[in-house]
Write a structure and sequence with these properties.
The complex is a heterodimer. Chain A is of the alpha/beta class. Chain A has 7 helices and 10 strands. In chain A, about 45% of the residues are buried. In chain B, the strands form 2 sheets. Chain B has a 6-stranded mixed β-barrel. A two-stranded antiparallel sheet of chain B has the order 8-9. In chain B, helix 9 packs across helix 11. Chain B folds into 2 domains: about 180 residues, no CATH class; about 160 residues, no CATH class. Chain B is of the alpha+beta class. Classes of the chains: A alpha/beta, B alpha+beta. Bound molecules: adenosine-5'-triphosphate and magnesium ion.
Chain lengths: ~240, ~400
């Protein structure tokens, strides 16, 4: 494992709802190294997705610092953030978030389109990605013609298309049965072997245990325990 | 992301919503085609009128008198004919008369005039001869008749040399006029022309209320007009309210200003429907933006910039309005052609109107697309992703 790719220190994110202030992230600090496979575990509403949006550059920190590859995300404008999302980060969502009007192949091509790749290269890379996740013969199918597991594989191929350093998965198996969940986890482990940094968000302890490192989050506060979750984690 | 790619994407999304796209375009189609139909009908009728006036010759001056306190007598008309720029003068008396041949009767316009009328008003005979000055002197009971009058009274037989009754008096027909067609609802062929002296008796009125003057050259008509006006002023001092001198150019200018106003008005009315079409596009695009909030969130998450989203929606609006505009042009030309052959209207399609209305429809797309596109591009990706 190499140098740190993500350095987060004293990150805050609050939402004001009526008169109340919700600390979605409260003084979060974490360092993630290149090639790590990290699981973030926590109960519903604890701030997991908020943290992932932050790491995924969909949001800027209110206070605190976030360095990605040594660059200060807090100082970037919207265009620069879009470029970082396009090139350095691959998102995998619980509900897949494929574009329903586009075929599997076109979905995988989409990030390459925004990266400005010419049509021929886009097609080649997208086909390559679909082959990797074992769905090459479904390239022309629409998402509605695919099973949940297959849709998530397409989403993984899309996340990987631009060959990003970091894969962010927010409950990637949340909408899948246990057998398919294991398959998807295997795919992610393989990707980790290939050198991708993977951050997996889940509230399922069994799934979190597959990762090499695990941190838990509760009421916006991050707790680390050298691979083993602390406290009465059994409640999740 | 390139423009070409954006256009492809826009076409794609338009295709995947065929019914809605068609309904949206309908507004543009109706707008553009009504502009084209109305403007081309207006221009067609303008052209028609102009060419009719041109046929009369542009070196023609007309003096009209109003009321009876001013007598255009023969010697005064003679003085006008002696003016420098005037080539020929033709006094006219006119009225409606009944003509009769055996059992057939007909109401026609009677014109009493002189030999010069033929060249002044460009009125040629197709058969026989025109009136001569001798006919006037001897008060000959001869007549030249229009093409329609000839066919009404004589059918296919040659009228020249035959007789007809005008208000009960027998006249010998010496010529038939070349057909002129109708102008502004008046047939130019349902006429009888007789010598001035005979005509004055027939309409029971010796006052000449109209004189046509032919100028020597077309490009000096302003000068001739001046000359004539000054002469008239000296012949009839303090009577300037009782007569008027007009030339063809005046008439043409008046007509073209009327038809221009008509064209503008019709075009303007039709443009309102273009505007309504544009609002329709904006409406649909706004619906589309909120329907596709999630899609916008996904696109942003995987790296679409504000510009990419803005362009996508803007191009969609422009493609919708542009394609609508093209279909509208085709529809407009089609309907215009159909109208012109069904109603025998003169319809004139000018490419400038087509280009203008196409550009206008593109502009409508841009103007009414900007607001929804901007709204889409400003969506916060996190909130957009949460949207169901
Ligand atoms: N847009 C928002 N406006 C107000 N409050 C918000 C908003 N987004 C999140 N929150 C609040 O922030 C806290 C953390 O939310 P977050 O979505 O990160 O939870 P989570 O750990 O992902 O939960 P789950 O496991 O259910 O997905 C919650 O209390 C939530 O109500
Ligand atoms: Mg969540």
């Amino acid at each position: 494992m190499g140098e740190p790719i993500i350095e987060i220190s004293h990150l805050m994110k609050t939402y004001k709802l009526g008169g109340e202030t919700v600390h979605a992230l409260n003084n979060v600090s974490i360092e993630i190294k290149k090639g790590e496979f990290l699981a973030i575990i926590g109960p519903s509403g604890s701030g997991k997705s908020t943290l992932m949006n932050m790491i995924g550059c969909l949001d800027r920190p209110q206070s605190g610092k976030y360095l990605l590859d040594g660059k200060d995300i807090g100082k970037m404008n919207d265009n620069q953030l879009a470029m970082i999302r396009n090139q350095k980060i691959g998102f995998i969502f619980q509900n897949f978030n494929l574009l329903t009007k586009l075929t599997a192949l076109e979905n995988v091509e989409l990030p390459l389109l925004y990266a400005g790749l010419p049509a021929k290269q886009r097609r080649e890379k997208a086909l390559e990605g679909l082959t990797k996740v074992g769905l090459i013969e479904r390239a022309g199918h629409l998402p509605t013609q695919l099973s949940g597991g297959q849709q998530q594989r397409v989403a993984i191929a899309r996340a990987l298309a631009g060959n990003p350093a970091i894969l962010l998965a927010d409950e990637p198996t949340g909408a899948l049965d246990s057998k398919t969940s294991i398959e998807i986890l295997e795919v992610m482990k393989e990707l980790n072997e290939l050198g991708h940094t993977i951050i997996l968000i889940t509230h399922d302890l069994a799934i979190a245990k597959q990762a090499r490192r695990m941190v838990s989050i509760q009421d916006g506060e991050l707790l680390e325990n050298g691979g083993e979750p602390i406290g009465n984690i059994a409640i999740y | 992301m390139g423009i070409l790619q954006s256009i492809k994407m826009a076409l794609r999304s338009i295709k995947s919503n065929k019914l809605r796209s068609a309904l949206t375009m309908l507004g543009m189609i109706i707008g553009v085609s009504s502009v084209i139909i109305l403007v081309s009908i207006a221009q067609g009728s303008a052209q028609n009128v102009t060419s009719r006036i041109n046929q009369l010759g542009t070196n023609l001056l007309t003096i009209n008198t109003f009321g009876n306190d001013l007598a255009l007598t023969e010697d005064k008309i003679n003085e006008l004919s002696k003016l420098n720029g005037v080539k020929a003068v033709s006094p006219v008396v006119s009225g409606r008369v009944n003509v009769k041949k055996e059992k057939t009767t007909s109401q026609v316009t009677l014109t009493g005039t002189n030999a010069a009328y033929s060249s002044v008003k460009d009125t040629k005979v197709s058969n026989g001869r025109f009136i001569t000055d001798l006919d006037i002197e001897y008060r000959q009971k001869i007549a030249v008749i229009g093409a329609d009058t000839a066919s009404t009274l004589f059918g296919t037989t040659n009228p020249v040399g035959q007789y007809l009754q005008i208000e009960g008096t027998s006249f010998k027909i010496v010529g038939v006029l070349v057909s002129k067609g109708s102008s502004m609802g008046q047939s130019g062929d349902n006429v009888v022309i007789v010598p001035l002296s005979t005509g004055q008796r027939l309409v029971k009125n010796t006052t000449i209320n109209q004189v046509y003057l032919q100028g020597k050259s077309e490009d000096q008509m302003d000068l001739v007009m001046n000359e004539v006006e000054m002469k008239m002023a000296s012949l009839y001092p303090n009577k300037s309210d009782s007569y008027s001198v007009t030339n063809q150019q005046d008439l043409m200018d008046t007509m073209s200003s009327v038809t221009n106003t008509m064209t503008m008005m019709l075009g303007g009315i039709a443009s309102i429907s273009l505007l309504v079409g544009g609002i329709g596009i904006m409406n649909i695009m706004l619906v589309s933006v909120s329907e596709r909030t999630k899609e916008i969130g996904i696109r942003k998450a995987i790296g679409a910039k504000r510009r990419d989203v803005l362009l996508q929606f803007l191009i969609e609006a422009v493609v919708l309005s542009g394609v609508g505009g093209l279909i509208g042009i085709l529809t407009g030309v089609g309907i215009g052609k159909a109208l012109s052959s069904l109603l025998s209207l003169t319809v004139s399609f000018t490419s400038s109107v087509m280009v203008m209305s196409f550009l206008f429809s593109l502009a409508v797309g841009v103007i009414f697309g900007v607001f929804p596109a901007n709204k889409a591009s400003k969506l916060n990706p996190i909130q957009a992703l949460r949207y169901e």
